[in-house]
Amino acid sequence: MQNGNVKKKKKKKSHVPIRLNMLFFIVFMMFSILILRLGVVQIAHGEKYLEEIKRTENKTVNTPVPRGKIYDRYDRIIVDNNLLQAITYTRTKGTKQQEVLGVAKKLGQLITFDIDKLTERDRKDYWILTHPEEARAKLAKEDLELTPSEQYQLQLERVTENELKTITKEEEEVAAIYRELNKAYILTPQVIKNHNVTPEEYAIVSEHLEDLPGIDTTVDWERKYNYEHTLRSILGKTTTSDEGLPREKLEYYLARGYNRNDRVGKSYLEAEYEDVLSGQKAKVENITQGKELIDTKVISQGARGSDLILTIDMDLQQAVEAVIEKHLKTAKSLPDHPYLDRAFVVMMNPMTGEVLTMAGKRYVKNKGKVEFEDFALGAMNTAYEMGSSVKGATVLTGYQTGVIKPYSVLKDETLYIKDTPPKKSWTITGMGNISDITALKRSSNVYMFKIAIAIAGAVYRPHQTLPISDEAFPTIRQYFSQFGLGVPTGIDLPGETSGLKGTSEKPGHLLDLTIGQYDTYTPLQMAQYVSTIANGGFRMQPKIVKEIRQATMEQSEIGPIIEPFEPHVLNRIDMSQDQIAQVQEGFRQVMQAPLGTAYDHFGKKTYKPAGKTGTAQSVYYNSETKFSTSSWNLTLVGYAPHDQPEVAFAVVVPWAYQEKSNYPINNLIGEDILDVYFDLKNKDRKKETAKLPYQEEAEDSRFNQ
């Protein structure tokens, strides 16, 4: 038995060397293949791979330049560029997150960084990046079958508050820097810090650029508003480097050579003239070797954006805004003005359409303190019932349709129309037989009602129905549109509204239409309308931008004109000069003749104004509380001097009072703004004159219809 066991043991041992030999052989073959492969790589393809490592890649990118400046009509800078020292980061292709984090840690030792923008998500991202093992442990076995993005989302959800609390203040600063670095697009400079960069920070970062891959020190800019909040809603805004290109216009800008993080105009003047203000971008060639950015070459320097010269007079703009604020504040201190919260003034040159002032103010209370918000934009994108100010258009429509003639006499009396409240003028007993001029001077409603009835082909019979033709509303609106009422003014800004047309076509509403108490119009439309009357019948396109000028290097110099914007006539109204002169006389008497509705405020003015007052019943509506109530709007349109108009204006005060007011805010504002205009005119400032449009040569293409 023992011999048999010995034989079996020996037999087992005899197999061990064979297995070891097989294993050694396999290992030998694997090493041989590996050595052979290395030999092929080093000997046969060594040069090729060495060249690949050393191969450089050149990529040209466009870098932004400072935007063009914006000046007023007297060459005072409204919007400028404030130069800033900046630290930027350019990310190269293939850069890993840990490498970006390493740069953030080094940079965090050299600069202070604001952590206000750091979100909970940013903190979680940082924790996961700096705790990879703990982050992996948050995934169960079944989670590993998910996509990487789904796994990461689970990790984010499973980071606890206690884990986030382990992040120190110093680490939060690093996380904030990492957040900014991580926004960078490949080979496109990303601003990391440009506010409050101290000279010491700028110098020390500059000294350590070799240890900070992708980091550079340079000069950046931001928009500077020299007049603070004045006209800000019209000037518009630019995006920040955080915002970059607007998503809705991303493809548009990318196709034009913009980078995704470029700052562009996002509203009003800044957006409308983006192509002008953005300038010619500098072209920079980035040269990389592997992941390393080894050099940059400037291909072209680029050029600062061209400058805009506005038609606005900033002295007048500021003075008018002060006038509005003064009268809003006074009116709000009196009884019966609970819903008054805004007022608008538009002043323009009636001969050229140049907008001298576009002012709007909103009265708000913030923690018991009165504040005034800029609402200049409301002059073109909010509309109201304007009241009797539109009666000049009504009278001229009456002339053109042939239902009245200059000096036609109609009786001002209360009209009783079936199924309609009594329609009358503001006087108790009526004005009796009056002419067209008196109807304008004293603001007769009934005179306008009778024009509408005649246009509608109806015959007024007391207490009977008033059938009107289907063409009545379209006819009156078509003639009103010749003045710019109810249609776009054509101003060189985006977003203007045309106002609202009433939907009912009842006879009573037709009468309301002729006295400005049905359709709604904007303050800018009212200024264009009165300008059309002032200049003899030419509807001028309102202009905010007067000219584009070439940028200069000198701070105090204005460059040569690249593109002037000439006056543009949109249409000539279908009324004769005699008919227009008749309405001009009615407007003159409103302000300069006894019994004129604005005589008490303008009768003694040496600048000889003309114009028309307006009061309209309206509805105040609060969209937040859904509360609505009846209210009254006050308006005033005019121009001066009446015989050689150089300024036209519209004053609009919505929801001025509820029942009765002894504070004629429309006339008070109108008086003050004209006083200011003529006071400024007498100062030592540039004076410009313009011919009346109808005095230009007939062949001038600017006035072709």
What does this structure look like?
This protein has 25 helices and 20 strands. The longest helix has 29 residues. The strands form five sheets. Strands 2, 3, 4, 5, 8, 15 and 16 form a seven-stranded mixed sheet that branches. The chain has a six-stranded antiparallel sheet with strand order 11-10-9-20-19-18. The protein has a three-stranded antiparallel sheet with strand order 1-6-7. 36% of the residues lie in helices and 21% in strands. The protein is elongated. The chain has 705 residues and is an alpha+beta fold. The N terminus and C terminus are likely disordered. It starts with a helix and ends in a 24-residue tail after the last helix.
Task: Describe this protein with a few key phrases.
6-stranded antiparallel sheet; disordered C terminus; single chain; 25 helices; 36% helix; alpha+beta; 705 residues
Which percent range describes the beta-strand content?
15-25%
Radius of gyration computed on alpha carbons: 38 Å
Shape: elongated
* Largest sheet entry: 7 strands, mixed
Q: How far apart are the termini?
A: 129 Å
The counted number of beta strands is 20
- Uncertain regions spanning at least 5 consecutive residues: 1-14, 687-705
Task: Report the average pLDDT across residues.
Answer: 88
Overall structural class, as computed from helix and strand content, comes to: alpha+beta
In helices, the fraction of residues equals 25-40%
Which helices and strands occur, and which strands form pairs?
Elements: H1 2-13, H2 16-44, H3 46-54, E1 56-63, E2 70-71, E3 77-89, H4 97-108, H5 120-130, H6 132-137, H7 148-158, H8 161-165, H9 169-181, E4 190-193, H10 199-207, E5 215-225, H11 232-235, H12 250-254, H13 268-272, H14 274-277, E6 282-289, E7 292-300, E8 307-310, H15 314-332, E9 342-348, E10 355-366, E11 369-374, H16 378-381, H17 391-401, E12 409-412, E13 432-435, H18 436-442, H19 445-455, H20 472-481, H21 507-514, H22 523-534, E14 538-540, E15 545-549, E16 561-564, E17 569-572, H23 577-592, H24 599-602, E18 610-622, E19 627-640, E20 647-657, H25 665-681
Parallel strand pairs: 2-8
Antiparallel strand pairs: 1-6, 2-3, 3-4, 3-5, 6-7, 8-15, 9-10, 9-20, 10-11, 12-13, 14-17, 15-16, 18-19, 19-20
